[in-house]
Amino acid sequence: MFELRNHIARLSALLLATYVGMAAAQPPSRVAVVDLLRTLIAAGVDVLYSSELVPSNLDAPDTDPNGDPMSRAIAGLGANHLTLKRAAERAYIVTRATPTPAPTSPAVAGAAVAPAPASAARASTLDEVSVFASRYEFTTGTPGEPTGFDEREIGQMPGAKTDSVRALRAAPGLATNLSARPYVRGALLDDVLVEYDGIVQAEPFHFRSFQSVMSTFNPSTVNRADVYTGGFPVQYGTRSGGVIDLVPQSVVSGYEYSLGASLLSYDLETVGRSDDRALEWLLVARASSDDSVLQRQLSEMGEPSFYDVVGRVRWSVDTASAMTLGWLILGDKVTFASPEEQATGRSKDFSAWLRWEWAPDTALQSHTSLAGTSTERYNKGSLSLPGLLDGDLRAERSFSDISLRSDWTYTPSALLRWNFGGEVTHEHTDLVFVRQETIADSLAAAFGRAPDATILSRQSPASSTWGLYASAHRRWQALEAEIGVRGDGQAYQGFGTRSQFTPRINLRYDLTDGWHTYGSWGQFTQAQRVDEYRTEVNQVAPDPASRATHLIGGVAHESRDAINWRLEAYRHHWSTISPYLDNTLGPVSLLPQLEPDRVLVVPANADAAGIEISAQRSFSHGLSAWGNYSLSRVTDDVNGRDILRSWDQEHAANLGMTWTKRRISASAFAAWHSGWPQTPLAVVPASATLPGYLAVGARNSARWGSYFSADFRLSTSLPFQSGDLALWLDATNLTNRSNFCCVALNPDPPTGVPTMEDQVWSPRLINVGFTWKVRRP
Q1: Which band of pLDDT confidence, cut at 50, 70 and 90, is reported for residue 51?
Q2: Which partner for 406 in 288, 354, 368, 604 could form a disulfide, CB atoms 3.0-4.6 Å apart?
Q3: Which of these, 667, 563, 727, 730, lies nearest to 170 by C-alpha position?
Q4: CA distances from 366 to 39, 139, 486 (A)
């Protein structure tokens, strides 16, 4: 098996080098017009068209496959005497073209495509209308001003070939290094809501006990991602920090399937649509291949492995309704061993949902879903530092829930939209945490720990939760507003009921065609799930719901022929917040629960504030660049003092660039930020009268050196009669910079005082692979 993996790696690299020149000479290909419209929809533009006017077999010469989605759609439609008629901002209808020349692009804010004459309008009467978009309303703007990523942007981001969530690090306000799970504007990891196909996913990440280094979603599963860093609408409940909303991959017609392999995984993917049977499907399955890349990601030598399956089948019952069956399966296991530390972890997750979409007319749409989740996690290990610490750990956590959710949208006109809905959930979990540990008196005193850290906790809590929400979205000539309210409640088994009420408002004002300002104010609550109990401190009663207030203001400029940029300022204040566990010496550890620096942080409140600026520019059809800068600060109020959170990054800047030419694509991404906070440590040697000891300074009062990572991606696609062969290379931290993050303590028996060793986030990671894809119209 090892030889086979080496052959795969060598073959991928050889084919990539051999064909990169050949690809540049490939002639222009033809493409289905519906696929051009699908790409435009994925870019966040609503398009309404008739399947009679744009049948699945209608194609056009794709003279510029790397151009922007709007230009490609206009060119493809124009080749078939069709055009786009503007219905609202970023919303268009496909109609027959007039004999007069059409505008270059309706993407410029305020521009409109000339209406067709009466004869042409009659010819394009829409007897059968098909709408393919993530949002169905022709109202402008999106409440909360999310940062959106279409499938092209996700696929081009270095490091995202095996993980779509990695691409989101380009969004301002997100902080992440080794882990794929982002901190959103200083909020805790658990404060971020993740949805896929409109279904809440509890923790869709692999190796959750070992930094959650990758998510379940590769680019084949995601068509679009919206990241809300604050001010999100009322239909997103239960979390107080941010939202990651992932829209599943789909095709407008035909089907495609692919087989692939890389140094990380073997992949099987298929997505398609059967018009005869009114079915759509998506199936993506992965299993780990060579464990060397995973070892480098986890920064430890061992035997990690994983698998995941994401599937979805959608059946259009009739023109007004559709049913979707979806599922997500993931599993992983890992074993590490060293003279001082042994760790074993495994997890299994299964999530399934049934979703009903109903649209009896163009004004009313609804989505109702029934979903269930089952999760099992097991973690076991030991840590021995002679003379300092000796501990054993066993942690088990099984969780299940079932939820019913219904969302309704009523759009009586293009300028008004009502949204209302509700959800109920029942949760149950079994929690076991067994730790037998003794810590040397001097080390325990340094970190404020008890010398005997032994604990036994066994619990089976359960709860039922519910939520109701409603909002109104109104558009005037230049002003747009959404006002919403949400109510949530919980019934914890044995602890009675609780309830929360949260109002929210989002505003947008269009100064000119290309300029707009926006603002948001709202309250967001987060009730503790029963699987989030802090078993290592034997928590037995649920925390009060966290409550955060978001205040956001910004200005944005959008233009097709100039720089698009956005400036935003925010302040998030948590007036009520749950305690959390943290490691003083740093987050990278196989067994953080056994480390002597494990502490419980109990804030009275918390604050996050900052300013973010982001910009994007297309220099030509094949060259574009983007960047952002953030100035921020996030603190906990602990005993009357503001203490920086361990992931605070005062300054952060990202810069990316993408170049494409025919079937060759290259992209680069550079990330830099201020070093995360560090707690000063010093070893005080023994004197004639006093033994040596470890001196620990004020928590998070110093900083590590700045973090920098340069990432690169190169890919090419070779067409054959039977399919396309894609070859790619992905490199993370290409310069192999040592970004220090943590301190490891090592025993020194002669002195009885530990020595210190600095650790780094992630070394250079290089992954190569290939994909064979077959597409049928």
Answers
A1: low
A2: 368
A3: 667
A4: 25, 17, 18
Cβ partners under 8 Å of residue 396, min gap 6 = 377, 378, 379, 430, 431, 432, 433
CA distances from residue 44 to 154, 226, 579, 760 in whole angstroms, order as listed:
14, 10, 39, 38
- Output the CA–CA distances (angstroms, integers) from residue 740 to 328, 391, 585, 731, in the order listed: 35, 26, 11, 19
Output the pLDDT for position 127: 35
Are the CB atoms for 747 and 757 separated by under 8 Å? no
Q: Which tokens hold the place of 322?
A: 């559709």
Mean pLDDT, range 760-770, rounded to an integer: 91
Predicted pLDDT of residue 71: 80
Average pLDDT, the chain: 85
Hey, is 365 helix, strand or coil?
Answer: strand
Query: Per DSSP, what are the bridge partners of residue 569?
Result: 553, 611
Distance between CA atoms of residues 646 and 642, nearest Å = 12
Residues constituting the chain: 777
Q: Distance between CA atoms of 181 and 605, rounded to whole angstroms?
A: 23
DSSP state, residue 530: G
Which two tokens mark 479?
A: 């002003």
Give how far the C-alpha of residue 3 lies from the chain's centroid of Cα atoms, to the nearest Å.
Answer: 35
Distance CA 15, CA 278 (A): 39
User: Please, which residues bridge with residue 615 across strands?
Assistant: 565, 627
For tokens 């209308």, the residue is 129
CA distance 562 to 54: 32
DSSP string, 417-485: EEEEEEEEEEEEEEEEEEEEEEE-HHHHHHHT--SB--EEEEE--EEEEEEEEEEEEEE-SSEEEEEEE
> Is the pLDDT score of 112 beyond 60?
no
Task: Output the CA angle 80-81-85, nearest 5 degrees.
Answer: 115
Is residue 633 over pLDDT 70?
Answer: yes
Q: Count CB atoms within 10 A of the CB of residue 620.
A: 10
